[in-house]
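re: that complex we talked abt at group meeting.

here r the seqs, copy pasted straight from the sheet so there may be weird spacing, ignore it
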Amino acid sequence: MNVAAPAYRPIPADDVAWLGTDPVPAAPYYDPAWFELERKAVFLKSWIHVGHVCELPESGSFVRRELEFAKASLLIVRGRDGVIRAFHNVCTHRGTQLVAEAAGRQAKFSCPYHMWTFGTDGALLSAPDFEAFHLEKKDCALPQVSLAECGRMLFVNFDPQAQPLHEWLGDYAERLEAMPVARATTFSEYTYEIDANWKLTYDNFQENYHLRFIHPRSGGAAIGADNQFGYPASVGFCGPHRTQRIWSNPAPDLKPFQRQASMKGIPALMRRGLLDLPHGRDYLAFFPNIFIIGTPTQPFSHTVYPIAANRSRGVVRVYWSGEDADASESFAREYSLCQIRDIHAEDIDMIERGQRGLESGAISHIHFQHMEALCRHLFNSVNERVRDYARETGETI
Amino acid sequence: MSAQLPSGFEALEPFVATWALATTAERAAMRSASSPEQRAAFFAAAAPLLDSALAALDGRAMADLAPQERRLMDLMYSLAHVALAVEIQGPDEIKSAPLRDRLHITRSATDRRTAA
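got the structure back, here u go
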């Protein structure tokens, strides 16, 4: 029986009109003063993704994370009690950074300068000639930063007054827990640095309007039929977070080897029960700077860390459940990683061109059409926080 | 010269030296460093053997592959990279390579693990 492909149903402009339709000011995408306000009002007050539980399998497992927006180096450690905590990677004696390794496993952490030694729970265990200080060890623990987990994803928050992570994620916490990332035991990763504002970078991945122009070869499967821009099937919003459902192309334009390669991972995914998870076509964006894709053959997260007003770092992780079961699954994982990396590579140059154009000051405003609603929603969410912060602190915008 | 690959895959012997690489980052780098002719020749020889190679290697844990089998697997991983260059990027591969090289592969699930 031939079943006619369901027609693409465009999302009515009225559905997202509540976000506004006005031009958006350009300065927040390059102005260092605005960036400084964002750093304080957004990044130091939001839950920020820093890793995955699978990176810390045993007591003493640690990763070091550099977060430029906080001028911080964090040491994220699984303690002997099994609890994962985040500490400033800073010796409480005189501030020396404790750990230089990016990751590893240690029972304790000794400062190379004067050998102050801390446990996996951050407590000061020993310090040479400690009696010569007028101190008690209990007052010398590593400074801690709030860390919480949802869907095996780890987030930190520098604001001691921050609402709990699950409350912050709202209705989307449950969705995150149902995504492949929540079952992942390993991942592949690539990172990049880009001469562009974090929002400009992130926005590239929030709209499909550019797909047919920037990814005519690599992104061919995402566009076609009666949806030539590959617009999403639906969009949704939850506080500062947002989602879109990726349109299912009824007749994706796949090349022969591409089709063959894409099928290689399917049997293993079926065996693992990962093919029919509820959010297999969903994109979940958590404010401010991470989005997660539920596609079973290519489940990935993309986090854009701000470095400066016009500099960012992207971290893309493709998540897998279980070690490679066999050659077919392993091959499929390699192809999947390479495929998404090819697509992202095509975006980098265009984003930097956008940054250079904006920094010239030639245009005072940028424009979002209604199918760029997610970009507008990000701007609105940032703008609201920056303005509230400026009002509370008396800083000028 | 003794066979470097399992029997049945002799056609891929000339590609072992260039393309049987241990990590995803090394394969990605070779994709960028190779010539269009090298990629085309490897793709033409290896793509028709994907099904039979994986069928020959499936059925056991990756850690249990013998050295000849491991080499064949590494060739199939490289084929994943090269297929994207030849089949998808085509004439755009040359301009996409320097952009792609900016995305540094820092970790891969398929990287050969050293014994604990």
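couple things i noticed - The first strand of chain B starts at residue 104 and ends at 107. Chain B touches chain A through 39 residues (CB under 8 Å).
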